[in-house]
Amino acid sequence: MELSAVLITYNAQKYLSLVLESLEEVADEVVIVDSGSTDKTKEIALSFSKVRWYEQPFMGYGKQKNYANSLAQGEYILSVDADEVLSPALRTSICREKGHWRAEAYQFLRVAVYCGQFIRAGDWYPDWKIRLFRRVIARWSEDPVHERIILPPRTRVESLEGELWHYAYETPEENLFRGSRYAWLYARHMHLQNWKPRWVPALVRAGARFVKSILLRGGWRLGWRGISIAFIGAIVYILREIYLAYLHEQHHSNPLPPSTDP
Prior knowledge:
The chain has 7 helices and 11 strands. It is α/β, with parallel strands linked by helices. Strand 2 (about 30-35), helix 2 (about 40-45) and strand 3 form a beta-alpha-beta unit.
């Protein structure tokens, strides 16, 4: 078996059919590890013949993906999220590599779809991701959010033509909710490392990110979408410090750990 597509899911019915359809001509198998979906995720997944379905309580993004990778049989792994679709050009590029791989890892351009529009400016663009790699050499980091691929030093990485379409958010509200959750997860991690709130650096980073996204990265060309992406991305830095301050106060007034969600 040459190429395994691997993804983790939880209530992923919205885009899963599109994702799996884009993998059909590319992958020799599709490994899905689900963490307790209550919608039609399993039904949709098992309607595709190449899918191997597993269930595992959520351990964190990096750990969950590493577990999923351990179940793959292919020499190479193509790692995608349950809201990421391979463009036709990217499918062609990957199929061209099969049988005579030029590198041990490959990167390609991920393009977000935000409120119905492809985002090719602002803080999210360009967004190059290493998502195709030899199974035995790579693993995911175990950061609380924004996990990343870890490769051995001097690993050769090639770029592939085509785009990975990320159907990120249908509404600004979804964006704000996800950003708040990421801030909470990161604040909990920082709290366990005995960090304390640092308000001035957080305010500076928030302002710098907003300016970078709107002006330096051309987010102004996206209209209200550009402002939304820049603003929500910036306030996450502030939310993280607010949550950290809350956890710090709770730790000194209540020995019981707070809930895991904001």
